[in-house]
């Protein structure tokens, strides 16, 4: 059963993502004060990781119908936005990118999320059959942080990567598994994990 508080947190994450992109648009027009801009970025940067953490906590259940629907939705919006941009600004019509928005990484999040979605059955199975996930999470932490953020390795220089999504998903799914097998913590809320992980 879904927890209404966690679903509210998911909605909040969506709002934060919208606010992040509005901040980018304002910044590009040069009308955003430095302090305000950085404050908004700081407050909303957690949104994507938190969203994936929640997805991992509940677990992604692969459904062919869902993935086909998502592909068709992306194609529809790609064609509509492509036509609008072309006729309003006269920008070049790139038919390959328009018809293959996911494959050409038009929107990094949806492309990476679909990669995670397709990998979810394998990840779920691995987590269910692994007794001690601490070493796995530690290894992913080393790869993502040390070989990613610190030295700006292209595999995960900013957290906008498939590797990052897998890492966060494993944390979320492992937390769910741990709570289900720990009577003392079974009723703890995911918000505590979010606060401890990203606070």
TrEMBL record:
<feature type="transmembrane region" description="Helical">
    <location>
        <begin position="108"/>
        <end position="126"/>
    </location>
</feature>
<keyword id="KW-0472">Membrane</keyword>
<keyword id="KW-0012">Acyltransferase</keyword>
<dbReference type="InterPro" id="IPR002656">
    <property type="entry name" value="Acyl_transf_3_dom"/>
</dbReference>
<protein>
    <submittedName>
        <fullName>Acyltransferase family protein</fullName>
    </submittedName>
</protein>
<feature type="transmembrane region" description="Helical">
    <location>
        <begin position="67"/>
        <end position="88"/>
    </location>
</feature>
<dbReference type="GO" id="GO:0016746">
    <property type="term" value="F:acyltransferase activity"/>
</dbReference>
<feature type="transmembrane region" description="Helical">
    <location>
        <begin position="7"/>
        <end position="25"/>
    </location>
</feature>
<feature type="transmembrane region" description="Helical">
    <location>
        <begin position="40"/>
        <end position="60"/>
    </location>
</feature>
<feature type="domain" description="Acyltransferase 3">
    <location>
        <begin position="4"/>
        <end position="172"/>
    </location>
</feature>
<keyword id="KW-0808">Transferase</keyword>
<keyword id="KW-0812">Transmembrane</keyword>
<keyword id="KW-1133">Transmembrane helix</keyword>
<feature type="transmembrane region" description="Helical">
    <location>
        <begin position="133"/>
        <end position="150"/>
    </location>
</feature>
<dbReference type="Pfam" id="PF01757">
    <property type="entry name" value="Acyl_transf_3"/>
</dbReference>
